[in-house]
Structure formats: structure tokens, C-alpha cells
Amino acid sequence: MTNRKTIVANTAVIIVCAELLLILLSWYLAATQTEGVRSLLSSEGIRWFFGQYTAVLLRSELIWLLLASMAGGTLWRSDIMGRGDQNLRRTYALRISMVVFVILLIVVMLLVLVPHAVLLSSTGQLWPSPFSRASVPLLALLIIVTSIFYGIVSRTFTSLVSIISSLTWGIEKASSLILLYIFAFHFYESLRYVFF
Fold it and tell me: Which DSSP string corresponds to the chain?
């Protein structure tokens, strides 16, 4: 665990240092009138840096990361992967949760595969379509619901608090990835601002 925190901390420091170097490099290149380079230290660059900070981070990947961490949390905390002792209750819970998973999968397939399906594009295509834009949230929802059913039937989840706790546990475990996401995507967008 400490090793992972060290790796995350070192990576965050590297990204922040790269951002600082980019700020200085953009100023230098703009001062030498290099073609097509905008300075992050100009009035326009400073306005962009602070004014667009939130807009830069609002991407589908952030939502996917949050949903995947919630799904991972419920999957892990429900013990559907079978880390505990296998007994009759767990076997029964696994069967029930697989039935729920198959039912949910059939519902999704009906929303996609039948003619004039709701989640297809207006031209009837699968890619790009509402389904392709919602594929990660749909997968996360399938995992979350299946894991919750397993946890309830196997009594791994004994209350609503334990279910909510499993969702937030996943986000807590992914918090270092969220931090790296913030630094990395802002650095990427800064690169795009300066050079493109």
C-alpha cells in the first residue's frame, strides 16, 4: 500500500513539474515569437488557465473513473469473487445474482438489438449511438446491481449503510487515480492550449 502511495505521489510531482516547465517554456517560446505558440503567462493564458480549469476536467473519462470505482467497490465488498468460505448461502446467492445479471443483460440487448431500438443512433447504427456513449455506465450499472443482489442474498450486505459503504469504498480506493486524472488531464489540455 505504501509503495502504491509513493508511486502516485512521485507521478503527481512529475506531472506538476512538467506543468511548471510547460508554463515557463510557453513564456519563453512566445517571447521569442515562435510561430503558433501561446504563452500561459500572458493575460489570455492566465484567463484560460483559471477560467477553463473546471471545463477542462469535465470529461467522460472522469465519470467513467468514478463509476468504475463504484462498481469495483461493490464487486469487491460483496465478495462475489469468492474470497470467503463457500457455503450453501453463497452458492445460492451466486446463482440468484447470475440470474439478475442475465435478466439485465437481456434488457440491455433488447434496447440495442431489436429493429428501431431505443439506444441505436437515428440511422440505426450501434457506433456512434446513445449505446456507445453509455456503454461504460451500463457496464458499471450491471456490475453494481449484480454485486448488490449477491451481497444481499449472501448477507455480505446487511443494511443500506453497508451497500452505500461499498460504493464509497471503491471511490476511496480510486482517490489516488482521481488525483492523477486531475493533474494529467490539465497538463494535457495545457499542452493543447500552448501548441495547438
Answer: -HHHHHHHHHHHHHHHHHHHHHHHHHHHHHHTT-TT---TTSHHHHHHHHHTHHHHH--HHHHHHHHHHHHHHHHHHHTTT--S---HHHHHHHHHHHHHHHHHHHHHHHHHHSTT-TTS-TTS-SSSSHHHHHHHHHHHHHHHHHHHHHHHHHTS--SHHHHHHHHHHHHHHTHHHHHHHHHHHHHHHHHHHHH-
- Say what the pTM is: 0.82
Mean pLDDT across the chain: 90
Percent of the chain with pLDDT over 70: 97
CB 189, CB 174: distance < 8 Å: no
Residue 123 neighbours by CB under 8 Å, 6+ apart: none
Task: Render 27-52 in DSSP notation, one character per residue.
Answer: HHHHHTT-TT---TTSHHHHHHHHHT
